[in-house]
Write a structure and sequence with these properties.
alpha+beta, 11 helices, Arc Repressor Mutant, subunit A, about 280 residues, 3-stranded antiparallel sheet, 11 strands
Length: about 280
């Protein structure tokens, strides 16, 4: 009976920390930013193990559906600090101490600055692989090289310089951006002053974005950083289905090895088919 009771208590903790009750929902931009910093790694739209910004705004679990943009009507117009929730998300992307990535399940994921030193060795490791190995496409390598040479660049200008204008190249171009985001090699935010109502991101390298925040050699090796990221992700999720860990990050093999080491050391524990940190367990 111990295990069912532990699961019950952990689910209650998840409901509280993910703000899944109307009385716990986040109502201001400051509260949402505090929510991101408290959890460290947060999904924007939800439908996965992580705490979700949209769910925290609504005070209940919200999952993207096949309805596409029509499903956004559930939350888009909710007022956050006098702005629509959609506008508030843009403010989060531009916050100095929060980064927008796609490292978790290739979905939009916000990373608090209290996790940047953990992610930094991972990003550097894959940047070195991009340079030395052929695990990224030529287009992805060109995007990184261009951003390294030019600095922050808006989407349309990036396409122009890469000579990828026109609908023929749209899917290929955006797949490349998404793949690089899933490794956090590049990060972006929506241009707050678009031209002619153009919605476009401004892209830059991870290293450029965190240059003034992270200095010197990383304290963690790549393997230790992956292990720390896994334990912090389990902690943010509160209750994480063990069978899904392999799907979390692009660095799957290393994440699975980290899971095994964390279980052996007792930093995370198995409760039925779930993983929890010792805080939750």
């Amino acid at each position: 009976m111990v295990e069912p009771e532990l699961l019950r208590k952990t689910r209650q903790l998840r409901e509280k920390e993910h703000r899944l009750q109307p009385s716990l929902k986040r109502r201001t931009l400051d509260e949402i930013q505090q929510f991101v910093h408290a959890r460290g790694i947060v999904s924007v739209f939800g439908g996965n193990e992580l705490p979700s910004v949209i769910s925290a705004i609504m005070g209940r679990e919200w999952k993207p559906s096949k309805k596409g943009f029509t499903g956004w009507g559930d939350w888009w117009s909710i007022k956050i600090s006098g702005k629509s929730a959609g506008q508030a998300l843009g403010e989060l992307d531009r916050a100095k101490d929060i980064l927008s990535t796609r490292i978790f399940r290739r979905s939009k994921t916000l990373i608090s600055n209290n996790l940047w030193t953990v992610l930094d060795p991972i990003v550097k490791h894959h940047h070195e692989r991009l340079i030395k190995e052929k695990i990224f496409s030529d287009l992805e390598r060109k995007i990184v090289e261009l951003l390294q040479a030019e600095g922050p660049t808006r989407t349309d200008h990036l396409r122009t310089q890469l000579k990828l204008e026109g609908k023929t190249f749209t899917s290929r171009f955006h797949r490349a951006l998404s793949h690089l985001e899933s490794y956090a090699l590049i990060v972006g935010y929506e241009d707050p002053k678009p031209e002619r109502h153009l919605h476009a991101n401004i892209w830059q390298l991870w290293s450029t974005r965190v240059a003034h925040e992270i200095k010197g050699e990383p304290d963690l090796t790549y393997a230790k950083a992956v292990k720390e990221l896994v334990v912090r992700t389990v902690d943010a999720a509160v209750l994480a289905p063990e069978g899904q860990v392999e799907e979390w990050f692009e660095w799957r093999k290393e994440a699975m090895a980290a899971r095994d080491e964390l279980l052996a050391s007792g930093r995370i524990v198995r409760v039925g088919s779930f993983l929890v940190t010792t805080r939750g367990g």
